[in-house]
TrEMBL record:
Residues 1-23, 58-87 are annotated as: Disordered. It comes from the Bacteria. This is Integrating conjugative element protein. It comes from Salmonella enterica. Residues 61-87 have a biased composition (Polar residues).
Length: 87
């Protein structure tokens, strides 16, 4: 924005070479910004994909591993204590 504002300044606007240099730098900055945007989108896609793959693998492991030990919940423990106490 500073470069485009500077191009409209009367002394700079009168010099063709200054305007061309300003346009060249603006184009360069636009390319850099686009490259950064693409990199951020790519990183986001990769991290999202990695998370999904990790979750899918864990689900497969959980479903195929029949030897998992189930931890009883607090409610189950309290119910069993109440049943033993009531007998």
């Amino acid at each position: 924005r500073i470069l485009t504002t500077g191009e409209s300044e009367p002394n700079a606007a009168a010099q063709k070479q200054a305007i061309e240099e300003g346009d060249r730098r603006i184009d360069s900055l636009d390319r850099e910004l686009q490259a950064l945007k693409n990199e951020m989108e790519l990183r986001r896609a990769i991290s999202s994909n990695s998370l999904l793959v990790t979750l899918e693998r864990q689900e497969v492991r959980n479903s195929s591993n029949q030897m998992q030990q189930r931890t009883p919940s607090t409610d189950e423990g309290m119910n069993s204590l109440n049943q033993k106490g009531g007998e």
